[in-house]
Specification:
It is a single chain. This protein has 358 residues and is α/β, with parallel strands linked by helices. The protein folds into two domains: 5-228, Type I PLP-dependent aspartate aminotransferase-like (Major domain) (Aspartate Aminotransferase, domain 2), CATH 3.40.640.10; 231-355, Aspartate Aminotransferase, domain 1 (Alpha-Beta Complex), CATH 3.90.1150.10. It has twelve helices and twelve strands. The protein has helices spanning 36-49, 59-67, 84-95, 106-111, 139-149, 161-164, 199-212, 218-229, 231-253, 269-275, 290-299, 342-355; strands at 52-56, 75-79, 100-104, 123-127, 152-156, 174-178, 192-196, 258-259, 282-286, 304-305, 315-318, 332-336. It has a seven-stranded mixed β-sheet, with helices on both faces. Strands 8-9-12-11-10 form a five-stranded mixed β-sheet, with helices on one face. The radius of gyration is 20 Å and the shape is globular. It starts with 35 loop residues before the first helix and ends with a helix. The relative contact order is 0.13. The structure holds pyridoxal-5'-phosphate. Residues 58-60, 83, 85, 127, 131, 156, 158, 178, 180, 190, 192 line the site of pyridoxal-5'-phosphate.
Length: 358
């Protein structure tokens, strides 16, 4: 990952360009089309993902630029285990007649049977790992099958981050990130990104961003860039914490209760090891039901009881609590590991388990 230092104009940090309009003859014309601070961020994310990046106001802004710009002759095949915001947006657009939506279940994805009726120009959008079930899908295999049908492959790689996985290198056409999560890493800013290889597709996303107005502020782009500088080292610690937690929880509550991309008993372990450098910083635990899960979360002291993931602070939440999460197991608690010392997190997890008699 090390690279020669980027030479910004004045020093190691870029300027925050606070301009809604630019003088004639400058590279930027109007603040909704381009901004020099976004471009620095796009260059960095593009370099990590090996593609051309457009940044957006949020992960949902990036997703909406793809889904919301589809024509009615294109079908969106959406993984059933996608993030609830993605499902809710797609269902809303479907309901008002603006999107031809078809869901693909995990087994239909693995067997690629969802592609049976697919037509060229359709899009298949999935997460790997998925949030919060943490299912892993074989991106290369899916990309080859989709290519045969002329279907574009879009991967939401938010949970992996570009440090652990690069979907474009595995054959995907479009990569989506919520920059709100590990890339910015401090739970203090929202952002999104789309990364592609095709120049026309890149221009298309930038046009949609401009016309939909889903733009990040220059200050937010600066904060995300600042977070990005420490992404690799933060991920190292967060992943180590998640791995250690997996071992403790495996011994304490057993294999069946855990969801993790590098789960040692998972059928997907070989795929995960091929396409991800590690199992990531998010782990889900499935308790008996909502009461036990709530009691566990309430007994934690170091983990913050809050939604989101990928920040420097560890977070815990029972997902089915949210609107749109009715299909998630009522006892599923998602743990997002931060960078705290492992011994502190371990003590917290063990005493919370003890507190609920496990
Ligand atoms: N994709 C995934 C996998 C997410 O978990 C989220 C948010 O939790 C999003 C996209 C949406 O991102 P944002 O909250 O930045 O709009």
């Amino acid at each position: 990952m090390t690279r020669t230092p980027k030479e910004y104009l004045h020093g190691p940090n870029p300027a925050i360009s606070l301009n809604a309009t630019y003088y004639k003859g400058q590279r930027s014309v109007y603040g909704r089309d381009t901004n020099p601070t976004w471009e620095y961020l796009e260059e960095e994310i593009g370099r990590l993902e090996n593609g051309l990046c457009s940044v957006f106001a949020s992960g949902m802004g990036a997703i909406a630029s793809m889904i919301g710009g589809m024509s009615k002759s294109q079908r969106l095949y959406l993984a059933r285990d996608s993030y609830n915001g993605t499902r809710r947006l797609s269902e809303f657009l479907g309901k008002i007649g603006r999107l031809d939506l078809a869901y693909a279940t995990p087994s239909e994805i693995r067997e690629k049977t969802f592609l049976k009726g697919a037509r060229p120009g359709d899009i298949f959008f999935f997460e790997s790992p998925s949030n919060p079930e943490l299912n892993v899908y074989d991106i290369s295999e899916i990309a080859s099958a989709c290519k045969e049908s002329g279907v574009l492959v879009a991967v939401d790689s938010t949970l992996a981050t570009p440090i652990l996985q690069q979907p474009l290198n595995l054959g995907a056409d479009i990569v989506i990130h919520s920059l709100t999560k590990a890339i910015s890493g401090h739970s203090d800013v929202l952002g999104g990104a789309v990364v592609v290889r095709d120049r026309d597709l890149d221009a298309d996303f930038k046009m949609r961003r401009s016309l939909f107005g889903a733009i990040a502020s220059a200050q937010d782009a600066f904060l995300i860039l600042r977070g990005l500088k420490t992404l690799e080292i933060r991920m190292e610690r967060a992943v180590a914490n998640a791995n250690s937690a997996f071992e403790v929880l495996y011994d304490r509550i057993g294999s069946e209760s855990l969801r993790y991309p590098y789960h040692r008993d998972s059928d997907e372990l070989a795929v995960a090891k091929t396409q991800m450098k590690s199992g990531g910083s998010v782990l889900s635990v499935i308790f008996e039901g909502s009461a036990q899960a709530d009691a566990f979360v309430d007994s934690l002291n170091i983990f913050h009881r809050a939604t989101s993931l990928g920040g420097v602070e560890s977070l815990a939440e029972r997902r089915a609590f949210h609107k749109g999460e009715e299909s998630t197991h009522p006892g599923l608690v998602r743990l997002s590991f931060g960078v705290e010392p492992w011994e502190e997190l371990k003590g917290d997890l063990l005493s919370a388990l003890e507190g609920i008699g496990l």
